[in-house]
Amino acid sequence: MQFDSFLFLIFWLVVLALYYSIRDWRGRKLMLLIASYLFYAAWNPPFVVLLWISTNVDFCLGKLIGAAQHQSRRKALLAVSLLVNLGFLGFFKYADFLNQTAAEILAWFGIGYQPQPLGIVLPIGISFYTFQSLSYTLDVYQRKIAAETSLLDFSLFVTFFPQLVAGPIVRAPQFLPQCKTPRQTGADQFVWGLTLFLFGVFAKAILADVGLAPVVDQVYADPAAFGAADAWLAVLAFSGQIFFDFAGYSLCAIGAAMTLGFSLPDNFHCPYGALGFSDFWRRWHISLSSWLRDYLYFSLGGNRVRPLRTGFNLLLVMVLGGLWHGAAWTFALWGVIHGTFLAVEHGLKHAAGFRLESSAAKLALMLATFLLVSLTWIPFRAQGFENLAAMAAALVRSDGAAVLAQSSRIAVAGIVAAMLLWHILAREIRLEQIFQRFSPMVRGALIAVLTTSVVIFSNGDSRAFIYFQF
Amino acid sequence: MPSFISNSSDRLPKPAVKRAFGLGLLAAVLLLAVVELRLRQIGFQPTVQDSKELWAAQRGKAALLGKRALVLVGDSRMQLGMDLDVLAAETGLMPVQLAIDGSEFLPVLADLARDPAITGKLLVSGDVWKLTANRPRDRAEEWVEFYHRKYKDLVSAKLETLLKSQVQQQLALYGGGIPPLELFKRLTTPGKVRPLYLKTDANRERDADYELVEQPGFYINRVLRSLGQPINMAGIDTQQKFEQAVGDKLRQSAAVQLSADQFAYTNDLARQIKNKGSNLAFINFPSTALVRTIEEYRFPREAGWDVFAGHSPALAFNCWDYPEFDFALPDGAHLDQRDKAEFTRRLVVKLKALGFFS
Prior knowledge:
The structure holds two protein chains of two kinds. Chain A is an all-alpha fold. Chain A has helices at about 5-20, 25-40, 50-65, 70-110, 125-140, 150-160, 160-165, 170-180, 185-220, 230-260, 275-285, 285-295, 305-325, 330-350, 360-380, 385-395, 405-425, 430-435, 440-455. In chain A, helix 1 (about 5-20) runs antiparallel to helix 2, helix 2 crosses helix 6 and helix 9 packs antiparallel against helix 10. The longest helix of chain A has about 40 residues, at about 70-110. Chain B is built from 14 helices and seven strands.
């Protein structure tokens, strides 16, 4: 069930009512766990088994790793965890992709092999919860945390419904300590949680779905039919759409968790106000980029190795990050481009001790970063390389007609410009700091307008959150 | 720069937002009530938004009902022309509306032919040009795919569709995703903006109230859509001149000669359906005035419908052959809601006489 759905609202109300009517903390956690399983089952009941296996395997392995004295045994146990988690992920997400890729490679050698598509349904959120569960066994293995002794707490950590299907990817040290003592939810925290949820739904349902998605869909469906101006507008529109869609989801998750007294980590912080690519990745999908940094990049030696090797590490991490998003070579290409940008940026900083002083230079770098990031979204959004090439061609077409309606152009330009301005001006400021600068009257008006907009204008064809497919 | 361990919930705005949130929510409720009341004052009625989810819900119902289903396939003529209550009362079957407005509906028929759970009776819209093979792909195909890939096995999608349609049936401000500017215009320009002439129910039955449209503009637009060619309307100020212009334009194109081969795919689908023990009938709906002129010119009976009917393994029923189906069609192509029940009743009588329901 999506956060911007009637079903979720009912589910959430029931959960809140039950949660606050139960006095016993253990009972509350048990109720939340059952609710989380129901939440997941609402998509596809059989896949609950996967979630259960992933949870129980990592819980047992965590205990065994924690108790093991010999490094070789610890390694073997960790390997089992990696095998189970990445095995699930590999089978459900990449089996068809690998099959197809093998066929293409064989075709190069003149060997005809036509595999039947396996027709595997991707369990929703599998990329998120496997990484979350895996981070726990890795943390235990690296002795960052002690093994968890409560299966209930650990199960809740893996399945907690607000962040189960699309993050943020929470780490065990962030969440498990919260399970140890009853959560105290004050009225202020509860209402701020509702406010964040409202912001998130507005960002997703209105800005992403109503304001930007139609233009993106229209242009990407047939790029050859559009001129350069419309194609550029669609590229910028997708930058906005994916931000509002995913940051909106994250805000909903954080807000919903907050109403239950739980804290979830921030996942976005004005990414389009970033000064360069490494800054961008500290601001975009923070829970994934930090996961990749801590468990993959550092394991490869990070930047404590020769510059050339560092560049390679960055490239490899970003390619794997790209493939984490989806089983397609366009995602790998997206990763290659980001990895290359990061490696070049790292090289420049390393060689030239690159520092920016003036505001004008900083602004120029922000805009350049935004533009390049927007262009990298093209392979991310494109449906295959043909579509990607058509889109790239549309960007430089000189004879294309202006097809988009003027109202669509104005809407996209307005939303994207406002987003960019906000990201640039608020790059060092937090949402609550912005909000508290407003007078109570403005706050009330903002909540009224957002609520009204969501109710009136978000009743079209519902669109799944973009990150539900990853 | 925040590290990944910073949490939004560790930091609350000061002063707290409680009062602002409460007032904001109250203002929103009042504002929504004003919008709802104003829309109703103008004449708007609650309507469900037709969508792929709503269609998928009915598609699922068709599979569940099995032999008790009377499945309707086609485009807007089928969706606007059939009264589901009358159909249910007159046939004892459970009607399921799977027609998709403005669509190329053959992918729906193909999907029903493939599904072993579809064993009920089918009524299919018989626009003859849409029964030929290799028609353009459109949302009908997309909706079928959506049903199988993203709806059929998902519990939440089904529950959400049910809830959403129930809410939309209660509130006029949910009137089919009105764009913000359009809504504002409707609320602030009384008399100039008419309520929606289409009303959709949760079961996808659709009523068209042609008293709410502006004539003759609406009819002219429908004719031009059927014609598919632009006409310079400058200087055309009488019906006669318009008919002349349409006739001139029509004569610039040749009539289409359809062959039996072009219906082979549809006939094959019909055979598959009949082989499952189902029965189906193709219904060519009435059309009048210039819309009919265009259709008769483009697809002459002897080279179109008659070719199809002569080779179809299913019942092929043409309303043009019976005077009792000469209803006044306000736009030349669709039935007004006031005639729908009677049209349905007469159609059932005819189909019963032909043994379709036995």
